Amino acid sequence: MKKWKLPLLATPLTLGLFAAQAPAALADISTTSPVNPLTVGAQDLGPTDPSTTINATVVLKIRNPQGLQNYINQTVDPASPNYRKYLTVNQFRNQYAPSQSAINQVIQYLAQYGIQASAYQDDLVIHATGTVDQFQKALSFQMDNYKKNGKAFRAPKNLEKIPQIIADTVLVVTGLDNFPSFHPMSTKVNTTGPEAQTTSVQPPTPGKASVPGQLTATDAANLYDVAPLYKQGITGKGQTIGIATLANFVPQDAYDYWDAIGLKSAKNRISQVHVDGGGDLSSDAGSGETTLDVEQSGGIAPDANIVVYDAPNTDAGFMDVFYKAVSDNLVNTLSVSWGSPEALYMANGQTNEVQAFDQAFMEAAAQGISTFAASGDSGAYDTNRGLPYPYFSKVVGADVPSSDPYITAAGGTTLPTTLQMKHGPVSTGNQERAWTWDYFSDYLSQNYGPSAIYDLGYFSVGGGGAVSSIWSLPSYQRGVAGTTTTPSGQSLMDETQTPPVDYVDLPSGFAGRNTPDVSMNADPETGYLVYSSTDGGWIAEGGTSFVAPQLNGITALINQSVGQSVGFLNPQLYALEKGGHPYGTNAPFNDITAGDNWYYNATSGYDNATGIGTPNVANLAAALKGKR
């Protein structure tokens, strides 16, 4: 498999480890032919019944965004009097939310059309309920019904328009369609074709060594040197972990998992918040994803409480789950393991929805909530997995929300092991490496031909990592050797049409936000056990969806060790990376220098295959504690 390595971007060093952290800015994006990606390859069934009820989310613009960015910078600057001093929701609302008169104007505008509306506690989100007819008149669009791959859904046929009278206040309206756009970042071993793997999954035995592919949260803690914190009595006590997800789950599954691996946990540590009525409860809906998020984060931090925010798998649900979590302000850490490619947000000529996510993460940072997102399980080629992606060309790109500059992007690695395959053994290597399944290439080529890596579904499975085409390089990544720019000649094409239709040309050579930030074991071949009753009991999985909640739990431990929330992690992580001794004995990170993610090679220092590397948790906690 041929791989390309992009030239390094030369950037000047920042002034000091915690120089003012200006945020990344949105890129200028032009679309060749704006389109709603949901409707590509779908059958248009005609107009939606105008009496159909819609529950939409109206996201309002932050007031004084530069002031908010400056305040967030101060919370991570040890020289600032606001270092690790965080806002309450009331303080955030009073300083950065739109004025009450502006909010009232939006509510009154919607009311003219019969749409009922009310604001969230932070005054950045308005819930709006009305009929299709009412929303079509208020926002000047047409709603049609569609069918694709057997799934029926509704979606705007043309882009909605924010009327001028409220345009200064409203950022975006989401939830007009009801297509399940987001996918979880969990992956199983290959189960198709002549090399289909059948794994005999055995429940864990406390005190007995686990094998790669059937590891537990305890094994993850051992891999990344959490044990010294446990010996100090650091178990997450006093911390609250937040999980943002798009599927409901069975809480008892997590308790059964923790019991099975020998952890003693309070029997009331989990609470649930069903946002917008909550997500569905089924294997198809992704309940196993929610289950593993809870089991892994809570397994790493066994005495932390957990609040699970689950919402429907819709644009509005995904938006609301974050705004609800930050508006409640009950959690110290928050992770999400669902996402969607940046290129799909770019295809319709609007990135306001991405900016709306960003506002929620900015509020989280200002309130001291550390946030994490899985970077994806399709290597650098994020458009290669799930619906509606098969209709589009495969482009190198980052995932939303992990590409956001205010969130920590979780990448994936593979542990060293030997796999017993149908025609003989396959080695993953002799050291922890970036996760892709290209280590199967020689074996598959020898036994099935040179195209087998593609034909049998091994490409492009691997840890997500690329350069954002939406967000510019944040200052905390400036001066980091190994950051790159976007590749040239990339276009998102609809390949179902003849000739193919070009929807958006991705920027070439754009100095964008680089992902991931840090990585941990994610390859299902060396992955983990999950207990999920909706998936039939004990199963073995992998994916960066394990890494995000593990980092969530790890940060709960670090918070307890430090004695306060460390807040927005990225500037602090990169300051340590640039500080002179990021790797080696007593250092906070382990450098990953082997493997790739199909496009980017893992090299010494930062790279788009594994980010800074993997955490040495005890040393990382000590380094962050030393910054008090």
TrEMBL record:
Keywords: Calcium, Hydrolase, Metal-binding, Protease, Serine protease, Signal, Zymogen. Residues 214-627 form the Peptidase S53 domain. Residues 190-211 are annotated as: Disordered. It holds the Pfam family Pro-kuma_activ. Residues 190-202 have a biased composition (Polar residues). Its cofactor is Ca(2+). It comes from the Bacteria. InterPro entries: Peptidase_S8/S53_dom_sf (IPR036852), S53_propep (IPR015366), Sedolisin_dom (IPR030400), Tripeptidyl-peptidase_I (IPR050819). The keyword Methyltransferase does not apply. Residues 1-24 form the signal peptide. This is S53 family peptidase. It comes from Alicyclobacillus dauci.
